[in-house]
Amino acid sequence: MRPLQIIACVKVVPKPEEVKVDTKTMTIERGEVRSEINPPDMNVLEMALTLKEQHGGKVTVIAMGPPLFEPYMRLALAMGADEAYLLSDRAFAAADTLATSYALAQGIRKIGDYDLILCGEESSDGATAQVPPGIAEWLETSQITYAEDLEVLSDSKMVKAKRELAGGYEVIQVPLPCTVSVKIGANEPRFMDMERKVWAEADGPVTVWAASDIDVEAEMIGLPGSPTIVDGLAQAESTERKREFLEGTPEEQAKVLVERLRPYL
Amino acid sequence: MTKSLYGAKEASGIWIYLEQSQGQLEGVSLELVGKARELADGRGIPIVGVLLGDQVGDLAQEAIAAGADEVRVADDPLLRQYTTDGYARVVTEIILEGKPDILLLGATPDGRDLAGRIAVRLRTGLTADCTDLKLEEKSGLLIGEVWGFGGGVIAYIKCPDNRPQMATVRAGVFAVPKPDAARKGKVVNVPVKLSEKDIKVQVLEHVVGGGVDITRAEVLVAAGRGCQGDFTLVNELASLLDGEVGWSRVPVDEGWVSRDGMIGQTGYTTRPKLAIVCGISGAFQFTVGVEKAETIVAINIDAEAPIFEAADYCIVDDMFNVLPPLIEAVKKARGGNGGR
């Protein structure tokens, strides 16, 4: 069996419950917010490591973001990944999905050898789910979105997976190389290995690439490379609700509630 | 800036990708036709549907009845099932031929799979997972409303220069328009230049249907962590109320249920008349999926749970203490009404 070259794309996101908008300046207050590896990307790392255990090969992590991402690259190494690349440059900042998928694709090209590019289904901050098909298009690979139960048929150089549909699923098979978006909850991510953590923090191979280190056109990355722009931000306002707390025993509460809900019964 | 394959000067019309599965249009596609009609009226913008499949021509009339002026149909046995490579190729050809100003798709698994692929192929901007659409007063640019950070933040996104201005829209955020069978429109058959070797995707198994569309439910009973995997009472209450059952993310992560009925940011947007939410704490990621409900009842053991901020009627207790007497009371009330 041929060893697999697996690229795991990850993102570091602010913990959603801690994000607030400054409604005066209409900017997102990130100052006090703690970050984490995007939860769906933990499923990516788990899938990558499982496939490596089955087929041999190498798991290479790639991310795009500010230098504060670097410790999270080391967490991925502590989980079992072999090496990590961080695309970090002010020139990459404020990229939309077109510019993000382009920069990641060019980073992956520079890494060179790949059979599978695994991405999370979506990020918990942007939640667009559009970067994986974008990477697939830039690199002209096949794609499987919302995938689970991935099976690599290395002799025929194909990959088979179950894929979510609206109200159902399908099982499809496509040629390698393939870009996959891994369905949220597709597996149970492992904990990091404490011995590996010591190694990852001290000597883990994390390479930071600036825009000039990879082959990118300056006008196709970051803000200049992004056709979409944010026209405004607002704090989500919730609908005014009655917020009537019902008192008494469960039987009494049930009785009052049924009275209130009469129109729906 | 990355240039799109055609520019704003050449572009016109709002086009909608009409997603179909096994000879049925997805509800979200009709919702988009209806919304596009509303946006276009008074501006003289044509609404054009794009329909791919095998012997799906009949569905064009459905889109016309919902508000489309024209439907371009690519009908071919090779398009019987959705494949990324086959569909991306044909849709891209149709778009480059017709040069729409705006292209809308439903944010379904296939819609997102296709949109992400062709947006890069066309080198254009894509606003994903919109919860509302409008046209900017002066410029006529499309403004997509999207949720960020678990729904706590709303962003308005536009794509000033590249064309088409692409957006995917969540199912259920717009109402399905009332069909007008008398509406007339043009149906254009598009030649399909596709051979078997163009399609590398092999569909080995394809299972849809049988599931319930909770985006259309009038009454919804939803359960979360508090149900501990036991949906018996929740199911019973839902069926008494002729409603459907949904859930938050926790039951999915715990492996109690599949994602078919998951409500919220990564799940479905619902707009029931009544939602009874049991044992769900009510993080933004969940509440964005029920906030369009007319009335919300929350039952949760934790008095501090944020769900109570978003509810009309609040009961602080274990759902297993509340649901049995509630079910009895509903039975009694319905009995009094002669039942249904």
Features:
heterodimer; A: 265 residues; alpha/beta; Rossmann fold; nine-stranded mixed sheet; two-stranded antiparallel sheet; 6 helices; 27% helix; globular; B: 340 residues; seven-stranded parallel sheet; five-stranded parallel sheet; 8 helices; elongated
Can you describe what's shown?
The complex is a heterodimer of chains A (265) and B (340). Helices cover 27% and strands 31% of the residues of chain A. By secondary structure, chain A is of the alpha/beta class. Chain A has a single domain (4-220), classed as Rossmann fold (3-Layer(aba) Sandwich). The radius of gyration of chain A is 22 Å and the shape is globular. The relative contact order of chain A is 0.18. In chain B, α3 crosses α4 (109-121) and α5 runs parallel beside α8. Chain B has 340 residues and is an alpha/beta fold. Chain B is built from 8 helices and 20 strands. Chain B has helices at 27-40, 58-66, 84-98, 109-121, 232-240, 249-253, 284-287, 319-336; strands at residues 6-7, 14-18, 20-21, 24-25, 47-53, 70-75, 102-106, 126-130, 132-135, 142-148, 153-158, 162-163, 165-169, 186-189, 202-208, 219-223, 244-247, 274-278, 295-300, 313-316. The longest helix of chain B is centred in the C-terminal third of the chain and has 18 residues, at 319-336. A 7-stranded parallel sheet of chain B has the order 8-13-7-2-5-6-14, sandwiched between helices. Helix content of chain B is 26%, strand content 27%. Chain B is elongated. The interface between A and B is large, with 84 and 104 residues.
